[in-house]
Design a protein that fits this description.
The protein is built from eight helices and seven strands. The protein is an alpha/beta fold. It has a single domain, classed as Rossmann fold, CATH 3.40.50.1470. It is globular. The two termini are 16 Å apart.
């Protein structure tokens, strides 16, 4: 089923600009909000993980007006990679993502969006391809900016839930994540070299099998997302 969706997507994806880079390179996006006041919040977990990847593979992230975010390109384990941290605030992440996709003609099935997930407790993460958003505003805007297309991969990092729906926004954006929870969340999203290679090669079926059935900290509760 997933392989059929990937085949259809690859054949139908059309971009509007000339290529400025290799279509073999993957794009990894870390969702979050810019500014020091948000740096330690749960909603910025995606940015934290992608910043760690940038450090690990020596990818220099610099502010780009063209892409409305901190952007860098480099290599990881011999494969090309683009890293992006939108600076548009979470609810407008999509415009930044689409600008990079169009400029470099990156197929949608070579995109991984890393983000926080309230459906899972800290210490649990899940890699998935396509599907719903569970109300995540950054994902919602990205899909809207893509004209409704949602066939890209997501790394969902558990940050917990406050227990009441009306408390979700302040829980995610106005309070710092306790250090022990933050450490567990980061550890659960750790990507081995094997996983990085699979992800950058767009081998999502294999990557999901490895990540989602991996060590205890990677295992997750049943998917509670919508769609």
């Amino acid at each position: 089923m997933l392989k059929e969706r990937l085949t259809r997507l690859t054949s139908s994806r059309k971009l509007s600009r000339p290529a400025h880079g290799s279509s073999d390179a993957a794009l990894v996006v870390g969702l979050g909000n810019p500014g020091p006041q948000y740096a330690h919040t749960r909603h910025n977990m995606g940015r934290v993980v992608v910043e760690d990847l940038a450090g690990r593979f020596a990818v220099d992230l610099r502010m780009s007006r063209r892409f409305q975010g901190r952007f860098g390109r480099g290599e990881a384990l011999g494969r090309g990679v683009f890293l992006l941290l939108p600076e548009t605030y979470m609810n407008r992440s999509g415009s930044s993502v689409v600008k990079v996709l169009n400029y470099f003609q990156i197929p949608l099935d070579r995109v991984l969006v890393v983000h926080d997930e309230v459906a899972y407790e800290p210490g649990k993460s899940r890699l998935k391809f396509g599907g719903g958003t569970n109300g995540h505003k950054g994902l919602i805007d990205t899909i809207r900016s893509l004209g409704g297309q949602r066939e890209f991969a997501r790394l969902r990092i558990g940050v917990g839930h406050p227990g009441a729906r009306e408390e979700v926004v302040p829980f995610l954006t106005r309070t710092s994540m306790p250090p022990e929870e933050r450490e567990r969340a980061i550890e659960s999203a750790n990507l081995s070299d094997e996983l990085v290679e699979l992800i950058l090669a767009g081998k999502w079926c294999q990557a999901m099998n490895v990540f989602n059935a991996g060590p205890v900290e990677h295992r997750t509760e049943p998917d509670k997302s919508s769609g």
